[in-house]
Amino acid sequence: MEKNPPTNSQILRVAVISDSHLEDPSEWFSTLYGRHLAEADVLLHCGDITGWQVLHFLDAHPRFHAVAGNMDTHLYHAGLPGKLELELNGLRVGIAHGWGFGYELAREVVASFGPGFDLVFFGHTHIYECTRFGNTTALNPGSCRAPRGGTEPSFALVTLGPERSLAVERIVLPRKW
């Protein structure tokens, strides 16, 4: 997954998903991709993809990047990184899956990247969260397929604009289309 996303000052739409936990791209997942993810300028997956076929399906996106989650050990050993750093529209971005079960996970993931990151995307809890730690926005898009804690399936659409501006939108998904 070494594709380089654009680093210009144009508006950039970034779709962020996590915890899909699928062996094959189901009809539901294919619909999600077609309706929401395919047109994103950049597509990020924060781990627990689970299936090779889903990884290959998403890799067809021209600017797809992913990290391995705790359920992706076979993908990790095949070269999917545990953490990833990118520059998107002049912003320093970190991507990781996450670990453990504490309510401080966002803070821990941000700290694991060190100082100087504008955005850190993560997953693992299956629960949407968007929090600021100093100058860093930490975003967990929730699980697009298997939410926890009474939440709905979701992903995030992040719009990165000129002059380092950003807007985050949580997209709640139907359980079936």
Brief overview:
With 177 residues, the chain is of the alpha/beta class. The chain has helices at 27-37, 52-58, 73-76, 105-113, and strands spanning 12-17, 42-45, 64-66, 83-88, 91-96, 119-121, 128-133, 136-141, 154-160, 166-172. The protein has one domain (12-172): Metallo-dependent phosphatases (Purple Acid Phosphatase, chain A, domain 2, 4-Layer Sandwich).
Write up this protein.
- By secondary structure, the chain is an alpha/beta fold.
- It has a single domain (12-172), classed as Purple Acid Phosphatase, chain A, domain 2 (4-Layer Sandwich), CATH 3.60.21.10.
- The chain contains four helices and ten strands, in the order E-H-E-H-E-H-E-E-H-E-E-E-E-E.
- The chain has helices at 27-37, 52-58, 73-76, 105-113, and strands spanning 12-17, 42-45, 64-66, 83-88, 91-96, 119-121, 128-133, 136-141, 154-160, 166-172.
- The strands form two sheets. A five-stranded mixed β-sheet has the order 3-2-1-9-10, with no helix packed on it. Strands 4-5-6-8-7 form a five-stranded mixed β-sheet, covered by helices on one side.
- The relative contact order is 0.20.
Write the layout of secondary structure elements.
Blueprint: E1 12-17, H1 27-37, E2 42-45, H2 52-58, E3 64-66, H3 73-76, E4 83-88, E5 91-96, H4 105-113, E6 119-121, E7 128-133, E8 136-141, E9 154-160, E10 166-172
Parallel strand pairs: 1-2, 2-3, 5-6, 6-8
Antiparallel strand pairs: 1-9, 4-5, 7-8, 9-10
